[in-house]
């Protein structure tokens, strides 16, 4: 998170100018103090229950970030076998990792079973195959689709009726038959309605739906409510008040556990909530281009580094870190990719000059992890600020990285 201090912008107490001089731009910078603040807030909000927080590493998968959350006591939420392997490499106990794939093969799920992680299944076909193969020797959780629309964008809404995620609540009788016939042990029930929960009541209603289906599963050990807690992206933006929802939900969860007949763990899988605000993406201004209709700021980045504004129409607050006291002007901020990669239309910024450094805020989640080599561009470096010091945690790519896995045909050309 970028802050103005004594006339200069800093991240984690380190001047932006020093970071750019040391690591160049573009560069992602993560402040671990913000990560810890968010984790502590969530743990405190849900302290009324036996709560287990698993970091959704698809949001920010640098191994140092994973190690940091492990040091705080978090578990790990993964969606691919590669994320499972990264988590184990980071030192997580496999039992602290939940694996929730979507539309993967049974062969990949077998690999996850081999690693000893918690398996979470979201379709009946795989549940039946899993039960026939493992019966009651490997416990699984079941991902339910509550048919609730939640999330700030259709691409991140995962619990509605047209979503590919989860098993429909209207298919529970079929699930019961599969469980009974294969003797598979269901030790958890899971849902995730989507990111950027805008209506807390919708989330609570989905939770009640989840509680209703538990009667069919006598061996539950946990209820996993996913996440989707929203953080502010713009001034006066709406956010999920976890300090409000926490006590309400934990009280209701404890009531449910009493009715169920035994205490269960309450799991969450936050990603964006934990790391979004910790990240700042620093870019350099290449050109100022004035047309008959607009003044464009062209920067040394594009949708290959930060695709969220183009893919989700998301807002990222932008600050001119090089000119804090400049006169406010209106600009359209664009990238250097051979596509329409507009970061922001008609954005008010302190007067921007070629060579200035712009800072994109809330860039910790789904920034680098969704980056690519489109246009054969290099992916940027990543820097993490830990205990007041800056560390390079991923090198900037080179041409060798672009060509590394390409195989030339002998004699061609």
Give a written overview of the molecule.
- With 413 residues, the protein is α/β, with parallel strands linked by helices.
- The protein has two domains: 157 residues, Lyase, Ornithine Decarboxylase, Chain A, domain 1, CATH 2.40.37.10; 171 residues, TIM Barrel (Alpha-Beta Barrel), CATH 3.20.20.10.
- Helices cover 29% and strands 25% of the residues.
- Strands 4, 14, 15, 16, 17, 18, 19, 20 and 21 form a nine-stranded mixed sheet that branches.
- Strand 11, helix 8 and strand 12 form a beta-alpha-beta unit.
- The chain is globular, with a radius of gyration of 23 Å.
- The relative contact order is 0.16.
- About 3% of the residues have low confidence.
Nutshell version of this structure?
This protein has 413 residues and is α/β, with parallel strands linked by helices. It has 12 helices and 21 strands.
Labels describing this entry:
413 residues, Lyase, Ornithine Decarboxylase, Chain A, domain 1, nine-stranded mixed β-sheet, eight-stranded parallel barrel, 12 helices
Which helices and strands occur, and which strands form pairs?
Layout: E1 2-5, E2 8-11, E3 14-15, H1 16-23, E4 27-31, H2 32-45, E5 51-56, H3 63-72, E6 75-78, H4 81-89, E7 97-99, H5 106-115, E8 118-121, H6 124-134, E9 140-145, E10 167-168, H7 172-182, E11 186-190, H8 200-212, E12 222-224, H9 242-260, E13 265-268, H10 272-275, E14 279-290, E15 295-299, H11 308-311, E16 318-320, E17 328-334, E18 342-350, E19 357-360, E20 381-386, E21 389-394, H12 399-403
Parallel strand pairs: 4-20, 5-6, 5-13, 6-7, 7-8, 8-9, 9-10, 9-11, 11-12, 12-13, 15-17
Antiparallel strand pairs: 1-2, 2-3, 4-14, 14-15, 14-19, 16-19, 17-18, 20-21
Helix pairs in contact: 2-3, 2-9, 6-7
